[in-house]
Each structure stands twice: as C-alpha cells, then as structure tokens.
Write a structure and sequence with these properties.
Number of strands: 10
CATH topology of the largest domain: Putative xylanase fold
Number of helices: 9
Number of domains: 2
Largest sheet: 8 strands, antiparallel
CATH superfamily of the largest domain: Putative xylanase like domain
Radius of gyration: 17 Å
CATH class of the largest domain: Mainly Alpha
C-alpha cells in the first residue's frame, strides 16, 4: 500500500503552519499523530521512517529544547515545531514505531531515557549512550561495514555527569564510501567528533537516491532547518574522519510503546 503525493503535500503545508507555535510540554503533537496515521499502511519500519522524515523537511532547527538539569526537575518535552539533530531522529523513529498515535509518547520516552525513566541523569546526553541504550532496547542494531576500527575515548563534555568513556566501532570515511552498498535509507549515521571529551557532533538519516547517490537528511544547525544534502558534501565541509551506522529493527513496537 502507498500514501498519495497529495497527502504528503498537505501534511507539509500543515506542518509549516504548525511550526509557528510551541507545543506544550508533554502534549501529543497533532502533526505527528497525523503522520503516524498516514504512515500506518506502510509495511516496513524503513518505509515509515522515509515517509515521516520526508514530511518533516523544512521544520526549523532549534537547540536546547529539552527541560531539566542536575538541580532542576526533568520535564518530558514533546515538540513537533522544531528540532535539533537528535530530537529530529527521535521524533521520526518514535512515530515510525508507534503505528498508532497513542503509542508515540511511550516510544519517545523509552528512546530518550535509560529505562524510560524521566530523570535528567537517565537522559541519553551523549549520542554514544543513546546508541548503546537503544541497541540494548533492540530498537537499532549496528551496520557492519568492512574497515571499521575500535574507538575508545574519555568523555567529559558535560562535567555534571562526571568522567565517562566511549568505546565503539567507527567506520572511516574511505571505508564508508567504498562500501556504500552496505547502506540503506533510514540508517542512522553518527559523526564522530575529533574534539577532546566529546563523542559525536551530529547525527541524521541516510537516504539512498534512486541513482544510488547518498544523501544526509538531518536537522542542520547551520542551515537552521531540516533538509536533505549530499552526504559527501557534508563529509567534506565538516572534515569527518569516522562515522557510526545504526539500522532500525523491525517488530519493536510492542515493547517500545508498553
């Protein structure tokens, strides 16, 4: 089954209007509910990711939308009017998992917080921890690419969390481009940071074009919106050396929305 182009255009137009206002903390976004319902007939996780992520193109970028701190109460923020790179990926994945609007917030909560517990110290502040915890949730799995190397690095970008370590398998740029056939639309690509004590500097979705070209679909801080751009151009502009790749697992809805 498929979703009509007219329906997609209608959703995009509605999204532009909704983008003017902020959603209340914890409210179920009607835009996302509409997208979940529209994507529900699509049979695979990857197809729903592609549909929902595309419908959100053009949404404004905004950082630091999550509320809470080491000395202030954590609030579960649910927004569809703006995203940073991680909240964009979370929103798309949770909507693709949910299949029904009433499961969206539960999926988002379990994805964002270790054990689904709404607490600042349980939030996945580092994307390496987001990856580790959602592999443990069996929401995603690593994508094997030949030439991957082990990376071990101390983390201390957020002193309030104390010293931590990141150990993961990262794919050098040359290996990524030499084995582009291993990638699929909807894969989550993480860009490993060269800065001391920081694990990643950005993330987004891979899109494989009809001609086999690779695109990055992401909430761009520099362009101030969600957009598609050639992956190689992004790699060149940001001088990326290594990346990680995760692929969403099918059949996780029941556990993630419980």
């Amino acid at each position: 089954m498929s979703v009509s182009r007219r329906h997609v255009l209608g959703l995009l137009a509605g999204g532009a209007a909704l983008a003017a206002g902020m959603r209340p903390v914890g409210a179920a976004p009607s835009r996302i509910g509409t997208l979940i319902a529209a994507a529900e007939p699509l049979p695979t996780f990857a197809q729903r990711i592609a549909f929902i992520s595309h419908a959100l193109l053009g949404t404004p970028y905004r950082g630091f939308t999550l509320i809470g701190g080491p000395d202030s109460p954590e609030q579960f923020v649910v927004r569809d009017d703006c995203f940073d790179c991680v909240t964009y990926c979370e929103t798309v994945l949770a909507a693709a998992i949910a299949r029904k609007p009433d499961g969206y917030e539960a999926a988002l909560r379990r994805m964002r917080y270790r054990g689904g517990r709404i607490d600042w110290r349980e939030r996945n502040h580092y994307f390496s921890e987001w990856s580790e915890n959602n592999i443990a949730n069996r929401l995603v799995r690593p994508v094997f690419v030949p030439g991957a190397v082990q990376t071990d690095k101390p983390l201390g970008w957020m002193p309030e969390l104390g010293e931590r370590r990141m150990t993961l398998s990262a794919v050098p740029r040359a290996s990524l481009l030499a084995h582009r056939d291993r990638l699929a639309s909807g894969d989550i690509i993480g860009f490993v940071s060269e800065r001391p004590k920081l694990d990643f500097f950005h993330t987004g979705f891979v899109v494989v074009g009809g001609d086999g070209g690779l695109w990055l679909r992401h909430a761009s801080k520099s362009k101030r919106r969600v957009l598609d751009e050639p992956l190689v151009r992004f790699l060149d502009a940001t001088r990326v050396r290594t990346v990680t790749l995760l692929r969403a697992e099918e059949g996780r809805a029941e556990e993630m929305i419980a």
